[in-house]
């Protein structure tokens, strides 16, 4: 009987292993605000297990074992020597608390940090979607390995490791280019009329999180895609560009920004929000409460801040501080509404658990968790099909080749230009070598005979592809630009 009790004691320790891990963690207090706990809903499987344990406790010969002890014994035996099961249990335990708490293995946590800091293992190519292709527009850093390997600006990626990537999204193509450090990937590019296979080695690549430019009318535009450790410094560099050019009307784009490091958002806010509170961070234990302030006496800058349904977390901290202080007006649609803060607790074996530890309250005392920020100017973007009637029609009956002349040639140029394939002039009717190469390229990726001849089949296929094109009309950006006195036509 003593042996069974001793085993039960050991099993209790194992069953509570997730909590014993916290002994190795950094000391950080749980900080969610106390609310009345909702009625717990347990799965049917758990209820069946509990019912069986209760029955066992009444029928088993050892009357000292109650149902709770029997359940702990079962969990302990299930976990013993089963690391995968333990990880699964810890993940389910954390994820059952809310949408943001979770458990990471050491490898998963490194991947999380890489994502947060925009660091990954790739080939260092800057890409844009150009029609059906991903076109190389630059390199992640000057004199990069990618450029030394043989890639050139203007190359269009056709295949990756032999797989056709035409018509894939840019994200899908980027995912195929990423992999393990120092692994290789074979990329087929189209350069002019030549298909070139390049073997590239994956290295550590760090993407910037801030990009800025000066639009016509001396109006600044800055986009922040997330908040990593370097985001504030990247923003300060863009701000220097604005200052050196006397730009004081700025459009800040926080759309689709999922958040990230709170302090990065706070540092940016401290550089643009007039003196006063930025945000309150409220913990479960009041003694850990923290408030962040700006000491900036004043600012000569005015902002319109673009937000949408995917603007969340730290992005909402920055947006709310700008809105509440009056330095910026929000343009777009209601934001996501994630006003809780997670903290990480590292463990000795390299694994980490992330726990919702606090909530934040905006400068003017608003609780926005699950609600979001309401824009000052509510604008919804729209998607529309291209009006094909304004383009030169193709006759679909004749063949056209190098040196030919006619409206169909001009129509083909217009369509292939819109598809990102043809780069030449579209205001003439002459079938040039440049158009011939564009036709070949289109035919190749659409599994047609790459003859460079604009035959009836090719014309029909081009028209079908062109007719299905859609474009997003960025009414949010247009609205902000117009409010600053810009001419929308200058954005095209």
Secondary structure topology:
Elements: H1 2-15, H2 17-20, H3 44-59, H4 67-79, H5 83-95, E1 102-104, H6 106-116, E2 119-122, E3 125-130, E4 133-139, H7 145-149, E5 156-160, E6 163-164, H8 170-177, E7 184-191, E8 194-201, E9 203-206, E10 210-215, E11 219-224, H9 231-244, E12 249-253, H10 262-272, E13 276-283, E14 290-294, E15 302-307, H11 314-325, E16 328-332, E17 340-346, E18 352-362, E19 377-378, E20 382-385, H12 407-418, H13 433-445, H14 456-467, E21 470-473, H15 475-483
Parallel strand pairs: 11-12, 12-15, 15-16, 16-19
Antiparallel strand pairs: 1-18, 2-9, 3-4, 4-5, 5-6, 5-7, 7-8, 10-11, 13-14, 13-18, 17-18, 20-21
Your description of this structure?
- This is PDZ domain-containing protein.
- The chain has 492 residues and is of the alpha+beta class.
- Helices cover 34% and strands 24% of the residues.
- It contains 15 helices and 21 strands.
- Strands 3, 4, 5, 6, 7 and 8 form a six-stranded antiparallel β-sheet that branches. A six-stranded mixed β-sheet has the order 10-11-12-15-16-19, sandwiched between helices. Strands 1, 13, 14, 17 and 18 form a five-stranded antiparallel β-sheet that branches.
- Strand 5 and strand 6 form a beta hairpin.
- Helix 12 crosses helix 14.
- The longest helix has 16 residues.
- It is globular, with a radius of gyration of 29 Å.
């Amino acid at each position: 009987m003593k042996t069974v009790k001793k085993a039960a004691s050991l099993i209790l320790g194992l069953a509570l292993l997730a909590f014993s891990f916290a002994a190795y963690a950094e000391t950080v207090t749980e900080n969610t605000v106390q609310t009345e706990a909702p009625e717990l809903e347990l799965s049917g499987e758990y209820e069946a297990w509990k019912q069986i344990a209760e029955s066992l406790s009444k029928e088993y010969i050892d009357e000292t074992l109650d149902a709770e002890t029997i359940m702990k014994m079962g969990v302990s035996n299930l976990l013993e020597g089963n690391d995968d099961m333990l990880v699964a249990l810890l993940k389910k335990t954390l994820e059952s608390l809310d949408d943001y708490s979770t458990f990471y293995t050491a490898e998963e946590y490194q991947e999380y940090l890489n994502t947060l800091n925009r660091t990954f293992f790739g080939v260092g190519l800057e890409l844009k979607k150009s029609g059906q292709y991903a076109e190389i527009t630059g390199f992640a850093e000057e004199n990069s390995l990618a450029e030394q390997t043989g890639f050139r600006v203007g190359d269009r990626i056709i295949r990756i490791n032999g797989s056709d990537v035409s018509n894939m999204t840019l994200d899908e193509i980027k995912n195929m280019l990423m992999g393990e450090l120092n692994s290789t990937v074979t990329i087929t590019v189209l350069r002019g009329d030549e298909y070139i296979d390049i073997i590239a080695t994956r290295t550590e690549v760090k993407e910037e999180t801030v990009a800025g430019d000066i639009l016509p009318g001396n109006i600044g535009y800055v986009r922040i895609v997330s908040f990593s450790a370097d985001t504030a410094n990247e923003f300060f560099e863009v701000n220097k560009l604005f200052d050196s050019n006397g730009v004081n009307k700025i459009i800040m784009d926080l759309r689709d920004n999922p958040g990230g490091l709170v302090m990065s958002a706070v540092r940016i806010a401290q550089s643009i929000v007039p003196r006063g509170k930025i945000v309150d961070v409220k913990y479960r234990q009041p003694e850990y409460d923290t408030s962040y302030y700006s000491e900036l006496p004043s600012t000569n800058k005015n902002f319109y801040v673009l937000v949408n349904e995917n603007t969340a977390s730290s992005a909402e901290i920055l947006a709310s501080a700008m809105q509440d202080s009056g330095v910026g007006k929000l343009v777009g649609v209601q934001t996501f509404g994630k006003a809780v803060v997670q903290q990480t607790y590292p463990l000795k074996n390299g694994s980490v658990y992330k726990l919702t530890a606090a909530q934040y309250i905006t400068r003017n005392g608003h609780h926005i968790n699950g609600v979001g920020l309401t824009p000052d100017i509510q604008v919804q973007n729209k998607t529309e099909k291209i009006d094909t009637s304004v383009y030169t029609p193709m006759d679909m009956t004749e063949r056209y080749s190098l040196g030919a002349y006619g409206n169909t040639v001009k129509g083909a140029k217009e369509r292939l230009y819109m598809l990102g394939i043809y780069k030449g002039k579209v205001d003439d009717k002459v079938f040039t070598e440049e158009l011939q190469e564009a036709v070949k390229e289109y035919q190749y990726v659409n599994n047609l005979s790459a003859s460079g001849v604009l035959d009836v089949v090719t014309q029909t296929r081009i028209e079908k592809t062109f007719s299905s094109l859609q474009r997003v009309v960025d009414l949010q950006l247009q609205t902000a630009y117009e409010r600053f006195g810009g001419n929308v036509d200058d954005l095209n």
